[in-house]
Amino acid sequence: MTTMNLTPRQLQVFQLIRQWRTAHGYSPTMQELADELGVSKVTVFGHVEALVTKGAVTRDPNKARSLAIQDEALPPNEGDGMSFPLVGRIAAGYPIERVQDNETLRLDEVFGPVRGQRGDMFALQVEGLSMRDEGILDGDYVIVERRSTARNGERVVALLPNGETTLKTLFRQKDGTIRLQPANEEFEPIIVDTCSVQGVVVGVLRRYR
Question: How far apart are CA 74 and CA 55, in angstroms?
Fold first, then answer.
């Protein structure tokens, strides 16, 4: 495979093209890429041309949906352990179900923003056991989508009025207050008039050794 030196924005465009082709079965237009990234069409065109020059994608200038990923292209951070061979699916007590040998599990696709959303992602290491009953343990890493709003029942990183941050499940109550609910009966819920949502948890990572 060929490794390339892509800028962060070029890598983002490359990944978006690949994800779009996987989800829709065809390539995005320049305007669709621009809309997804929240930039101008001219900016996207420049990034795509750079990808073409570096051999990451091909493009037919006479066709609107001609962007194609070069099979041998491998951006540098795509060979650094962020993807794993997906060899099957397993449930307790049942044999493993084989899948195609060429399938992979990509962490950026599992934990990345939902299509149409542009939230940045970040990780936090958990301290304490207040979310134990939801399977979030001391020392785990939570993957968080940076957002300023959340729905009832979503696990959020919240900034409290006293300046502290906490990981809890958010509920808006009828009296206008906000309840930040732990998942451990040893901890009391936090009731506040207001708080600032820093992000919403989309996944948990744990290392056993």
Answer: 10
Query: Considering the entire predicted model, what is its pTM?
Result: 0.55
State which fold the 121-205 domain adopts: Umud Fragment, subunit A (2.10.109)
Residue matched to tokens 């829709």: 24
Q: Distance between CA 5 and CA 65 in Å, rounded?
A: 25
What are the residue numbers of the active site?
Answer: 130, 168
Determine the average pLDDT of the residues in 110-129.
70
pLDDT in tens, 87-109: 455 454 444 455 555 566 666 66
Predicted local confidence at residue 123, as pLDDT:
81
- Please give the CATH architecture assigned to the domain spanning 2-83: Orthogonal Bundle (1.10)
> Which residue carries 């948890």 as its tokens?
201
- Nearest partner of 30 among 59, 69, 5, 72, judged by Cα: 59
Contact 137, 126 (CB under 8 A): yes
CA-angle at 87, arms to 200 and 99, nearest 5°: 100
CA 84 to chain centre: 16
